[in-house]
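Work Package 3 (structural annotation) set out to generate three-dimensional models for the target panel prioritized at the project kickoff. During this period the team completed the workflow that converts sequence records into discrete structure tokens, so that structures can be stored uniformly alongside our sequence database. As a representative example, we reproduce one entry of 112 residues exactly as it appears in the project archive.
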Amino acid sequence: MGTKIMSLLAIQDDSCQDKRKYIEPCRIDATGMDRIKLDILRLDTLHPKVSGNKWLKLKPWLSRYAAGGYYGILTKGGPWSNHLHACSYACRALGIPLIAIIKGSESQPLTP
């Protein structure tokens, strides 16, 4: 399991090869804008399920679990939470036990 965790965690480590593939040049066609160069960091392309700021927020917790001494991960989010989706995907892929608490009330309709 350690190898699977380390390979996922390597996505944004300094040792990660060719980070340029996440940078997308953007060209602006406007009068007087020809001297401006704009590049966009596409964190949404890191992974199809665990990407962008979700990965940046999860990585430290997955690293702590990988270091040992923990039984799993406990997290919470709203009924339509992208965080819960990303966290549950990462934990399942890495074999990490997860307890996910979905915040809401009885008056809200059930969600998938």
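The first strand starts at residue 23 and ends at 26.
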